[in-house]
Write a structure and sequence with these properties.
Strand content: 5-15%
Helix content: 40-55%
CATH superfamily of the largest domain: Bacterial extracellular solute-binding protein, family 7
CATH architecture of the largest domain: 3-Layer(aba) Sandwich
CATH class of the largest domain: Alpha Beta
Number of strands: 9
Strand order of the largest sheet: 5-4-6-3-7-9
Distance between the termini: 30 Å
Radius of gyration: 19 Å
Oligomer: single chain
Number of helices: 11
CATH topology of the largest domain: D-Maltodextrin-Binding Protein, domain 2
Largest sheet: 6 strands, mixed
Number of domains: 2
Length: about 325
């Protein structure tokens, strides 16, 4: 994300706050827009101390964190009834509980997990073609649709294109894509409403952002500084949630004012999308995990656990 945009507000806040709380013993430099290393190299970069801390996502690191990527399954999201500050915080707690599953915890053993953040769901934005039901996907090139979601898209005649948010505007402008999956907190800052014609407000994939640290750098800190680090990140979590909430709320007026056509699906239409994802996306996620050595029992348990946690931590019943 751009600096000071959405969750980035909390990262920038933490950078300043940690310097203050440690009386300048640490200086924090931040790099928005993947300005230091590309996301594809994020894990190698933090392992080798190119940077001490990195933000990446389960979606872009699925082979490293396959079971944790269950949070990106389409329609299994928080904020089904609109974004809520309280629900952001609740969803972060849901991730903490999910990552206590032993098989998921094992995936993260090479990193100090600083924080993880569940993001709000993506909606489908399209250029020229209006989409309401799955059958309308035919012929679209959908940026941000990869893995299990790409299988669902392809079943209805669309093609998924790997894409990170900063590439969305350029890709659609050049015709590399004709659609994209983005949150309001992305559609607004990236001004996607300038080149798109339609938004389908069906909650699709969400997923998790991960803040990871190099173990050597963590262990080099004194216990007192480790405590300051942990406490300052707990406070930053609140700022991140507020930034995510504000970006969504503040983005909507410009999106609506642009004249873009926004479709809110009926419950019946939404059920059609859920059924399509359960048929095509969920089995692909399970198969991908099983191809990496996990049993069907494990994938079934992790999927059931995430469904349970969404129900448990959803604040807007």
């Amino acid at each position: 994300m751009p600096p000071f945009s959405a969750i980035g507000v909390g990262f920038e806040w933490w950078a300043d706050e940690f310097e203050k709380r440690t009386d300048g013993r640490y200086i924090v430099e931040t790099y928005g827009f993947s300005g230091l290393v590309p996301d594809a190299s994020a894990l190698d970069a933090v392992k080798s101390s190119v940077c001490e801390i990195i933000m990446t996502s389960t979606g872009s690191q699925q082979t490293s964190f396959p079971l944790a990527s269950v949070t990106g399954l389409p329609t299994l999201t928080f904020h089904q009834k609109g974004v809520s500050f309280e629900e952001y915080l609740a969803s972060f707690d849901a991730l903490i509980e999910l990552h206590q599953e032993p098989e998921i915890a094992e995936n993260f053993k090479d990193y100090k997990v600083v924080k993880n953040f569940e993001i709000d769901p993506c909606y489908l934005i399209t250029k020229e073609k209006k989409v309401v039901v799955p059958e309308h996907l035919s012929g679209l090139l959908v940026g941000g649709a990869s893995g299990s979601l790409a299988d669902m898209m392809e079943a209805y005649g669309a093609a998924g294109v790997f894409q990170i948010p900063p590439e969305a505007y350029m890709n659609m402008d050049k015709g590399v894509t004709t659609a994209a999956l983005m949150t309001y907190a992305m559609i607004g800052p990236y001004k996607m409403y300038e080149i798109c014609d339609y938004i389908l407000k069906q909650p699709f994939t969400a997923g998790s952002l991960l803040v990871l640290m190099n173990w050597d750098d963590w262990n080099a800190m004194s216990p007192q500084d480790q405590e300051i680090f942990t406490e300052s990140w707990e406070d930053a979590k609140i700022v991140c949630a507020q930034g995510m909430y504000d970006e969504n709320i503040n983005s909507e007026p410009a999106i609506v004012a642009s004249g873009i056509t926004i479709t809110v699906p009926t419950e019946q239409v939404s059920d059609m999308w859920v059924a399509a994802c359960e048929k095509y996306a969920f089995p692909r996620w399970a198969k991908d995990c099983q191809n990496l050595g996990y049993s069907e029992e494990v994938t079934d348990r992790i999927l059931a656990k995430w469904k349970e946690l969404i129900e448990k931590y959803t604040t807007q019943k």
